[in-house]
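Long-time lurker. I teach an intro course on protein structure, and each term I like to show students one example going from raw sequence to a predicted 3D structure in token notation. This year I'd like something fresh instead of my usual example. Would anyone be willing to generate the tokens for the chain below so I can use it in lecture? Attribution to the forum is fine with me.
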Amino acid sequence: MDDLVTARLLLHPLSPPEAERVAAGGPADGCRWASGYPTEGDLVGARRYLTTCSITGDPQPFGPYEIRRREDGLAIGGLGFHGVPDDDLTVTIGYGLIPSAHGRGYASEALRKLLRFARESGVLGVRGDTEHGNTASRRVMTAVGMRPVARDERLTYYSVAWTDDGAPGAVPGAGGAIPGAG
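-- Reply from a regular --
Happy to contribute to a lecture. Here you go:
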């Protein structure tokens, strides 16, 4: 699968061997990681992906992506899908950046591209969540068109949906806590 390209970023779909390197926390020859990558979230995402691969096979293009800056090729974070679309053609996403990459619009740029890719791939809804105190993540999801749909004691849940004709619609299960988000 090809990289997804934005103005400043490459979203590189991880292969199982690449995910193994991320999960181990060390790049292979030729890999270029910025200081602080991978984060704990990247490690968790790589392990989740490897578990999925071992149980049901590689879900790509609905797996993890490494966020790389186009200017220097350095990996600065990750984002991706938590698995293939469910029966309602809805997916759950997650994302994160190393601290030195915060505040530059990279997360919004990457997530906007991932949402566009999801929609072009036939997905009708996308879900995500963030801790109540994570103002930056809440702003990112709002900036890309996701809206808060539920809260629990720790998390705020967000979603965006499209109908088959591309118009905005309701996300299935958006009336309460969203199973599988997080």
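Some talking points for your students: The beta strands are 4-5, 9-13, 64-69, 75-81, 90-97, 125-131, 147-151, 155-161. The chain has a mean pLDDT of 90.
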